[in-house]
């Protein structure tokens, strides 16, 4: 069907969108690269001399860089762990026939529709605030000292908020995967004498492997760039306790007005994200082929 | 041992009664086929025996012991599903070994049994493959292998051949019959295909809307169908039914005559008619003949070499020894 003429026409038709998308990516990327090699600080106007790798050197040797890397890893890893395990359990629960199934499913999915800034603020002021928050009230009601979440366990609190946001996504994907499992397979394993645990471990979990891969891949990409939740709750603090790489770049370029340094951080983040992506694709991309 | 007794077993889904109370006795070593049109409750009945569905009333006895409330795995039955239900991420070896592994058998024992089953089923070369790399017939055999290794009291088959193509189906039919002769284990087999029922069964149970219409050996059902439904269901092509004056002449509301029990002649006979479509199978020819006396065309079997064309005038004569007579309720008259 694809004649030479139709192929040429197809290329011509696709060209505008490809060029647009490519430009959309190439222009900011090359500008970031360019800025990262300049001394470009908005507080010190004047000429912006080329300084080579200087920005990179100072960005990487900054003590908050190491903290940001560790925090990023903990944040991504923690949220992935909670959402995958929790999502699997939720999916198993929601797969059971029950009264009001439709409503319950929609309610479980709803956190995903709340904007990150809004959910950050709601958690900060209505749940985790030691004076006004529900958790504080509960603790006081039971005679405990209320926990000041954002100063005592700041990173864990952020992980909690982000997990709450992403749990629905994982649940949704894993639930659909679970529903696509052939019920005859479960019945066969039941006849074969498999207990509930064995059925979960030998039949359901292997069936879910591919969906879990998808969840991990997609979430990792989004979780590497968590920003709004940190900005509205802790501002990266106390100290650098909740500063991740994205937030550190924000601090350099928009709080310290050092565009060059911020750009260098951005380039490092791009490289890291690509390394993670390649690593993930290699490791679990195999799952997607089969 | 594999003797199964159903005692007033019934099943309802909510208000809907799928299986009214029924009794059935399956002897040890028998090959029993449940046959009926789709939606007649035959698969449900099988699942009740397997324990995958709970009975709404009555009791199921396996080898004389009440198994009504025993979970499926403990009933000592093995089931082969329509979709085979192989575990796609496990190799053939692991699939077959799965029930043994669940029973906690040691590795050496497992391997021995798997090898044995693979040898019986000609699967030895495929043990390391995944189900996705096998053909339909091979998957079928793996599913049977998984059932065999458990050494069950009875095998349950739920339309196991319906996903295979026609040629393979005939082959697998033979293989399953062979297996039954060799193992002499009770087998319960569900199908909607009366040919499968006729060729494989020791005993056929004809079901309609959850009711047992007739139980008997294939030839019993063929020779003396209890009612119109069984008469029409068993035999291929279908039995011809005729009502009206011709039936009243023989003191019946309806008479049935099989295509193979009707003689065709070009000069003399009881019922004159005109040849319609003819189906040449080589060994036989089926003519659809429009008789002047009846509304519906009759199907007639003749030899493969009989040469009649569309529109030819013929005479049909029923073989009175093989005429079936039915009363107003559709029940067989003696």
Automatic annotation (TrEMBL), chain A:
<feature type="domain" description="ABC transmembrane type-1">
    <location>
        <begin position="69"/>
        <end position="280"/>
    </location>
</feature>
<comment type="similarity">
    <text>Belongs to the binding-protein-dependent transport system permease family.</text>
</comment>
<dbReference type="InterPro" id="IPR035906">
    <property type="entry name" value="MetI-like_sf"/>
</dbReference>
<feature type="transmembrane region" description="Helical">
    <location>
        <begin position="247"/>
        <end position="280"/>
    </location>
</feature>
<protein>
    <submittedName>
        <fullName>Sorbitol/mannitol transport system permease protein</fullName>
    </submittedName>
</protein>
<keyword id="KW-0472">Membrane</keyword>
<feature type="transmembrane region" description="Helical">
    <location>
        <begin position="199"/>
        <end position="227"/>
    </location>
</feature>
<keyword id="KW-0813">Transport</keyword>
<feature type="transmembrane region" description="Helical">
    <location>
        <begin position="106"/>
        <end position="123"/>
    </location>
</feature>
<keyword id="KW-1133">Transmembrane helix</keyword>
<dbReference type="Pfam" id="PF00528">
    <property type="entry name" value="BPD_transp_1"/>
</dbReference>
<feature type="transmembrane region" description="Helical">
    <location>
        <begin position="12"/>
        <end position="37"/>
    </location>
</feature>
<dbReference type="GO" id="GO:0005886">
    <property type="term" value="C:plasma membrane"/>
</dbReference>
<feature type="transmembrane region" description="Helical">
    <location>
        <begin position="73"/>
        <end position="94"/>
    </location>
</feature>
<keyword id="KW-0812">Transmembrane</keyword>
<feature type="transmembrane region" description="Helical">
    <location>
        <begin position="153"/>
        <end position="178"/>
    </location>
</feature>
<dbReference type="GO" id="GO:0055085">
    <property type="term" value="P:transmembrane transport"/>
</dbReference>
<keyword id="KW-1003">Cell membrane</keyword>
<dbReference type="InterPro" id="IPR000515">
    <property type="entry name" value="MetI-like"/>
</dbReference>
From TrEMBL, chain B:
<feature type="domain" description="ABC transporter">
    <location>
        <begin position="4"/>
        <end position="234"/>
    </location>
</feature>
<keyword id="KW-0067">ATP-binding</keyword>
<dbReference type="InterPro" id="IPR003593">
    <property type="entry name" value="AAA+_ATPase"/>
</dbReference>
<keyword id="KW-0813">Transport</keyword>
<dbReference type="GO" id="GO:0016887">
    <property type="term" value="F:ATP hydrolysis activity"/>
</dbReference>
<dbReference type="GO" id="GO:0005524">
    <property type="term" value="F:ATP binding"/>
</dbReference>
<dbReference type="InterPro" id="IPR015855">
    <property type="entry name" value="ABC_transpr_MalK-like"/>
</dbReference>
<keyword id="KW-0547">Nucleotide-binding</keyword>
<dbReference type="InterPro" id="IPR008995">
    <property type="entry name" value="Mo/tungstate-bd_C_term_dom"/>
</dbReference>
<dbReference type="GO" id="GO:0055052">
    <property type="term" value="C:ATP-binding cassette (ABC) transporter complex, substrate-binding subunit-containing"/>
</dbReference>
<dbReference type="InterPro" id="IPR017871">
    <property type="entry name" value="ABC_transporter-like_CS"/>
</dbReference>
<dbReference type="InterPro" id="IPR003439">
    <property type="entry name" value="ABC_transporter-like_ATP-bd"/>
</dbReference>
<protein>
    <submittedName>
        <fullName>Multiple sugar transport system ATP-binding protein</fullName>
    </submittedName>
</protein>
<keyword id="KW-0762">Sugar transport</keyword>
<dbReference type="InterPro" id="IPR013611">
    <property type="entry name" value="Transp-assoc_OB_typ2"/>
</dbReference>
<dbReference type="InterPro" id="IPR047641">
    <property type="entry name" value="ABC_transpr_MalK/UgpC-like"/>
</dbReference>
<dbReference type="InterPro" id="IPR027417">
    <property type="entry name" value="P-loop_NTPase"/>
</dbReference>
<dbReference type="Pfam" id="PF00005">
    <property type="entry name" value="ABC_tran"/>
</dbReference>
<comment type="similarity">
    <text>Belongs to the ABC transporter superfamily.</text>
</comment>
<dbReference type="Pfam" id="PF08402">
    <property type="entry name" value="TOBE_2"/>
</dbReference>
<dbReference type="InterPro" id="IPR012340">
    <property type="entry name" value="NA-bd_OB-fold"/>
</dbReference>
<dbReference type="GO" id="GO:1990060">
    <property type="term" value="C:maltose transport complex"/>
</dbReference>
